[in-house]
Amino acid sequence: MNEDHGKLILRLMLGLLMLFHGIDKIIGGIEGIINRFEGIGLPGALVYLIYLGEIVAPVLVVIGYWTRAAAFIIAGNMVVAILVAHSGDFFTLTPNGGYGLELQFFYLLSAVAIIALGAGRYSVAGAQGKWN
């Protein structure tokens, strides 16, 4: 039972914290990100997938439905974010001595952990199933 509690805490932490990033993009817009994508030769329309990775997938992770697939989407979203927006931070430290990509890797590796562990018992879809 403790394992299922841990999975629930991990899901809630990743899903809710990632959701804040999605809400920020709904409120503040994604025009700057579109410009960044187009500036490196990627189609700006790809940016709209951010809503999938920062709104839809986090909600699915929180409720525990198609959890592994949703965590995979979040992980992919973070890989793209690291490569497109934070690639200059690979070998940096923050003013407080933390790794420059600490937050991004925290989200990425939390998503990878959920992919490996699954949703657990406390989820809408239950602990059974390939995608949960």
Structural account:
The protein has helices spanning 2-28, 31-39, 49-63, 67-85, 102-117. The chain has 132 residues and is mainly α. The chain has one domain (2-117). Helix 4 packs antiparallel against helix 5. 28% of the residues are buried. The mean pLDDT is 91.
Number of domains: 1
Low-confidence stretches: none
Total number of beta strands: 0
Compute the CA-based radius of gyration. Answer: 16 Å
Main sheet specs: none
The helix/strand order is HHHHH
Task: Write a concise synopsis of the structure shown.
The chain has 132 residues and is mainly alpha-helical.
How do the helices and strands line up, and which of them pair or pack?
Elements: H1 2-28, H2 31-39, H3 49-63, H4 67-85, H5 102-117
Helix pairs in contact: 1-3, 1-5, 3-4, 4-5
List the main descriptive attributes of the protein structure presented here:
single chain, 132 residues, mainly alpha, 5 helices, 65% helix, 0% strand, globular
